[in-house]
Amino acid sequence: MSLKSKQHNLFLFPRWMNAVRPYIAVGMLLAPIYAVALIYYAFSPTTTMARYMPEQPVPYSHALHAGDLGIDCRYCHNTVEYGAAAAIPPTQVCMNCHATIRATSEKLAVVRESFESGMPIPWVRVHDLPDFVFFNHSAHVNRGVGCRSCHGRIDRMDTVYQEERLSMGWCLGCHRDPDPNIRPVASITDMTWEAPGDAARFGAKLREEKQIQPSEDCSVCHR
Ligand code: HEC
Ligand code: HEC
Ligand code: HEC
Ligand code: HEC
Ligand code: HEC
After folding, report:
1. How many structural domains are present in the chain?
2. Is 2 among the domain residues?
3. Looking at the domain assignment, is residue 154 inside a domain?
4. Given pLDDT bands bounded at 50, 70 and 90, which one contains residue 98?
5. HSE of 72 in the Cβ direction (CA atoms, 13 Å)?
6. Do the domain assignments include residue 98?
C-alpha cells in the first residue's frame, strides 16, 4: 500500500462533509427539541385509549366464563406463559363445550358457522400497542405480574374493555416500582388474589429473592 492511500484512509470524514457541515450543526440544535416533543407526546393521554370497548361479533362474556364458571384464563389464552402474545382461542375451544351446551342458542350462531366453515370468528382487537413497541407476556407473567395488574377485573367484564392507558408512562411507572404488582407465579391468573399484609413489602421480598429488575432502557421496549 502506498503512503498516499494510507493517508487517505486516515481521514475520518470524506471531503463532501465540509459542504453539509452547517446543516449538521442546525440538526444538532434541533435534535433536543425534537426529542422533547416526542417524549411529550408519549406521555400525553390523547395517544392512548383507556376504556376502549369495541362491540364483539359474539356476546361472549368473561364475567360468565372466567368469573361464574371459573374457567382459568390459560384454558383459552394458552400461549400467555410461553410467548410474546396471548393467543385468542380458536373456535374449536368454544365447541369443546358448546357442541352440547346451548347447542342451538341464537347467541352462538356465529360460533357454529365459524366451526362449520373453518373461518375464524372475527374478534375485534381491544389492546393494541403501536408496532414500534416491544411487549412480551411471558416475560411478565413468569416473573409474577398477574393479568389483573394490567387488564383489571376481566372476570367481571361482560364485554372486555381496556382498563389501563398502555402509555409509556404507565409501563415505566411499574418498571420503576414493581413491588406492589409482584405475586407468586402460581397465582398470576387468580383475579381475587390479595397479598398477605402489605402488598409492596410482600412484593419487595419476592423481587429480591428472584432478582427481578425491570429495565428502563429505551432499547428494551423499542428494538
Ligand atoms: C373460554 C375462553 C376464555 C377464557 C377462559 C378467558 N378468555 Fe379472555 N378472551 C376470550 C376470547 C374469545 C376473547 C376475544 C373476544 C373478546 O375480546 O371478548 C378474549 C379476549 C380477552 C382480552 C382482550 C384481548 C384483546 O383483544 O385485546 C383479554 C385482556 C383477556 N381476554 C383476558 C383474559 C383473562 C385475564 C382471563 C382469565 C381471568 C380470560 N381472558 C379468560 C376467551 C377467553
Ligand atoms: C368449559 C365450557 C365452556 C367453554 C370452553 C365455553 N363456554 Fe360458553 N358457556 C358455557 C356455559 C356453561 C354457558 C352457560 C349456559 C347456560 O346459561 O345455561 C355458556 C354460555 C355462553 C354463551 C351464552 C349463550 C346463551 O344462549 O345465553 C355464549 C354466547 C358463549 N357461551 C360463548 C362462548 C364462546 C365464544 C366460547 C369460546 C371462546 C365459549 N363460550 C367457551 C360453557 C363454556
Ligand atoms: C404487564 C402487563 C400485562 C400483563 C401482566 C398481562 N397483559 Fe395481556 N396485554 C398487555 C398488553 C400491553 C397487551 C397489548 C399487546 C400488544 O398490542 O402488542 C396485551 C394483550 C393481551 C391480549 C390480546 C392478544 C395479544 O397478546 O396482544 C390478551 C388475550 C391478553 N393480553 C391476555 C392476558 C392474560 C390472560 C394475562 C395473564 C395470564 C395477561 N394478558 C397479562 C399487558 C399485559
Ligand atoms: C405492573 C407492572 C408492569 C407493567 C405495567 C409493565 N411491566 Fe414490563 N416488566 C415488569 C416486570 C416485573 C418485568 C420483569 C423484569 C425481570 O425479569 O427482571 C418486566 C419486563 C419487561 C420486559 C423485558 C422482557 C425481556 O425480554 O427481558 C419488557 C420488554 C417489558 N417489560 C415491556 C413492557 C411494556 C412495553 C410495558 C407497557 C406496555 C410494560 N412492560 C408494562 C413489570 C411491568
Ligand atoms: C417499559 C417500556 C418502555 C421503555 C423502557 C421506553 N418506552 Fe418509549 N414507549 C413505550 C410505549 C408503550 C409507547 C407507546 C405509547 C402510546 O402509544 O401512547 C412508547 C412511545 C414512545 C415514543 C413515541 C411517542 C408517540 O407519540 O407515539 C417515543 C419517541 C419513545 N417512546 C421514546 C422512548 C425513549 C427515548 C425511551 C428511553 C428514555 C423510551 N421510549 C423507553 C414504552 C417504553
Report:
1. 1
2. no
3. yes
4. very high
5. 12
6. no
Q: Which three cell numbers stand for residue 165?
A: 392507558
| Cα 74 to ligand 1 centroid, rounded to whole Å | 9
pLDDT at 24: 63
pLDDT digits (tens, 9 = 90+) for 16-75: 566 666 666 666 666 666 666 556 555 554 445 678 999 999 999 999 999 999 999 999
Between the alpha carbon of residue 81 and those of residues 17, 65, 188, the distances in Å are 51, 20, 10
Q: Residue 209's domain spans which residues?
A: 47-52+61-67+78-87+127-221
Ligand closest to 173 (CA) is 4
Q: Radius of gyration (Cα) for the chain, nearest Å? A: 25
- Which residues does ligand 5 sit against, CB inside 6 Å? 38, 41-42, 47-48, 129-130, 133, 167-168, 171-172, 175, 216-218, 220-222
Cβ–ligand 3 contact at 147 (below 6 Å): yes
**For the chain, first and last CA: distance in Å?**
41
Ligand 1 atom 25 nearest Cα? 126
Asked if residue 156 is part of any domain, the answer here is: yes
Nearest CA to ligand 1 atom 18: 160
d(CA 169, CA 94): 37
Ligand number with the minimum distance to the CA of 63? 1
Confidence grade of residue 89 (pLDDT, cut at 50, 70, 90): very high
